[in-house]
Automatic annotation (TrEMBL):
InterPro entries the record matches: DinB/YfiT-like, MST-like
Species whose genome carries this gene: Micromonospora sonchi
UniProt name for this protein: DinB family protein
Top-rank taxon, per record: Bacteria
Length: 161
């Protein structure tokens, strides 16, 4: 549940955690085939959304805030589209577990910085942790909305599945 009376940081982190959990709820009880099924003209699938948001978390929190030597923030449209692409070894279980691990590390990385901490971004110039958190709330919530629609098209489930 989102903390409605906390300070700014806790509100932002609560909203992000809420949407992270909702994404996982949308895929947890689906078969691998259902999660990978294309139901719209684009390559967007429920499993692909989990994979994409895993890449988003890594990019914004791990690579931007705590880069390993040689890591670069993905900046091409091709990289974004590739992040939705499933492989033969991708399962609901493996994708969800990877997403949970990456989100846990994202929390750890973000906790080391204050909201005003600024880092360079290859396309935007500079961004603060505050901006990154707001952006991740927006990006995750938008894709959870997509997941809502795809889940309803899959088996009719709606709401907080």
């Amino acid at each position: 549940m989102v903390n409605r009376v906390a300070d700014e940081r806790n509100v932002l982190e609560s909203f992000l955690d809420f949407h992270r959990a909702m994404l996982l709820r949308k895929v947890r009880d689906l078969s691998d085939a259902d999660a990978a099924r294309r139901l719209v003209p684009s390559a967007t699938t429920l499993a692909g959304l989990v994979k994409h948001l895993t890449v988003v978390e890594r990019s914004w929190f791990h690579i931007l805030l705590d880069p390993a030597p040689g890591e670069a923030f993905p900046t091409t449209e091709q990289a974004a589209l590739a992040s939705f692409t499933l492989t033969g070894s991708d399962t609901v279980e493996s994708l969800a577990a990877d997403y949970e691990r990456v989100c846990a590390r994202s929390r750890e990385v973000a906790a080391r910085f204050d909201l005003d901490h600024v880092v360079p971004h290859p396309q935007l110039g500079e961004v603060s942790l505050r901006w990154i958190l707001v952006h991740l709330v927006e990006e995750t919530a938008r894709h959870v909305g997509h997941a809502d629609i795809l889940r309803e098209l899959t088996d009719g489930a709606t709401g907080s599945v």
